[in-house]
Each structure stands twice: as structure tokens, then as C-alpha cells.
Recover the amino acids of this structure.
């Protein structure tokens, strides 16, 4: 296949095909005697994998990195490893989808949720529960997205109510909201300069409406991404 042919088959500009070779997203392409590139079915497969991986434009850095990793392994013809990465990516997307659904449930039922325990969680326990790094939680704290109590030894203590708030903030981050945007978003609800009661603010009609709109788009995009990575898995398995 010529450059124009493979570009047409994958719905990209010919320059994109050349860039993908330069970036290692597809294998090195042999040249004919006249200098024209000669693409094979394997190059077509690699292009298809790359286009599916990058089809959904997630701003989240970790999602982009996972998609890129699949493409890089495919470009090195390490299809078995690319398959494992694709399966890991699908699992991660499924988890993100579950977190989104849980956050929506929390917002929709905020006033009706009965907190069943007075147990206080540690910083480490919360990070594990939400699958976040402890530094991420500290960053959110430093930027005023949430507050918590400390015990007599000055250690952070998180309640069930804190977990609910963090689920919601986590979902807003997954929906491409910057930390500054989340802070402004929360403040804009009541037009206050200092958010003292985040739990009350999270239950206002304006927040609920805006949050459900945001998470609806996030859920749609996650489902699209899951469909795309399933197609990648099918392509690689068919190649093997």
C-alpha cells in the first residue's frame, strides 16, 4: 500500500501516517527502489490500533498515557504485551465508570443517605478506597477543595461524609475539570468567597443539575472509550 492508500483506509491525512512512523506508533516502513513507502497489512493494523486508542480525547493524563502505551507496544510489534495493556486499560475504564455511577448516586441521594458508621478513616485508607495517591488528596486539600478533622495526635480523620465529597470531587476531575475549575464551580453555587459547608452546597439544585450534565457526558465518553479498546483487543486477537 502507498501512503495515500493507508491514510484513506484509516481516515487520516497522509502526513499523520508519516508522523506515526516517526513517533514509533507503526513499524519502520520499507521503501521501494523509487523511494515510495510500501505499507503492509501489519502497518494497517498498527494504524487502526492507534486511531482507536486516540479516538476519545481524554484530558486526563493517566488515560492518555495508558492509550499511548498500547500504541507504542503495537508499533514495536509487541502485540502480546499490547493486548495485556489493552485489557488493563479496559479494566481501568470500567473502574472509572463505576466511580462515576457511584458519584451520581451520591449527588442524587445526598439528603437521603444514612451514614451507617462513626468509623474514622485514615489518609492511607481513603487513598486506597478511592484508588488515588495520598499526594493527590493532599493537593486537593491544599487547594481548598475539602476539609477534614484531625485527632489529638494531629492526624487526618475522614468520615463517611468526607468520602462522599471526595467521590464527587474525584468524578469532576475525571470529567476534565481542573482543580481551579472545581473550586470555582463549588464557590459559584452560592456566590460565596469562603466555602464553609461543602455538603450543603453539593445538595443545591444548581450543583445537582450541573453535576448530572457533566457526569452524563463523562459516562458517554467512557463508554465510547471502552467500546474502542474492546475493538483494539479484537483486532490484536485476530492478528494473533
Amino acid at each position: 500500500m502507498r501512503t495515500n492508500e493507508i491514510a484513506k483506509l484509516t481516515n487520516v491525512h497522509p502526513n499523520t501516517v508519516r508522523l506515526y512512523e516517526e513517533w514509533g506508533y507503526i513499524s519502520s516502513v520499507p521503501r521501494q527502489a523509487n523511494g515510495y513507502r510500501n505499507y503492509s497489512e501489519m502497518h494497517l493494523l498498527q494504524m487502526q490500533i492507534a486511531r482507536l486508542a486516540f479516538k476519545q480525547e481524554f484530558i486526563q493524563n493517566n488515560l492518555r498515557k495508558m492509550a499511548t502505551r498500547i500504541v507504542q507496544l503495537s508499533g514495536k510489534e509487541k502485540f502480546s504485551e499490547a493486548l495485556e495493556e489493552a485489557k488493563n486499560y479496559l479494566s481501568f475504564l470500567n473502574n472509572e465508570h463505576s466511580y462515576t455511577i457511584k458519584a451520581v448516586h451520591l449527588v442524587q441521594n445526598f439528603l437521603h443517605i444514612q451514614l451507617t458508621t462513626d468509623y474514622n478513616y485514615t489518609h492511607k485508607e481513603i487513598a486506597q478506597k478511592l484508588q488515588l495517591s495520598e499526594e493527590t488528596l493532599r493537593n486537593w486539600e491544599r487547594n481548598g477543595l475539602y476539609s477534614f478533622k484531625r485527632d489529638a495526635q494531629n492526624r487526618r480523620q475522614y468520615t463517611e461524609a468526607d468520602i462522599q465529597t471526595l467521590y464527587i470531587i474525584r468524578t469532576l476531575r475525571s470529567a476534565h475539570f481542573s482543580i481551579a475549575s472545581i473550586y470555582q464551580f463549588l464557590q459559584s453555587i452560592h456566590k460565596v468567597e469562603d466555602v464553609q459547608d461543602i455538603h450543603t452546597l453539593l445538595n443545591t439544585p444548581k450543583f445537582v443539575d450541573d453535576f448530572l450534565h457533566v457526569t452524563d457526558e463523562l459516562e458517554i465518553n467512557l463508554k465510547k472509550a471502552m467500546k474502542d479498546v474492546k475493538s483494539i483487543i479484537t483486532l490484536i486477537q485476530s492478528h494473533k
User: Anything to note?
Assistant: Residues 192-196 have pLDDT under 50 and may be disordered.
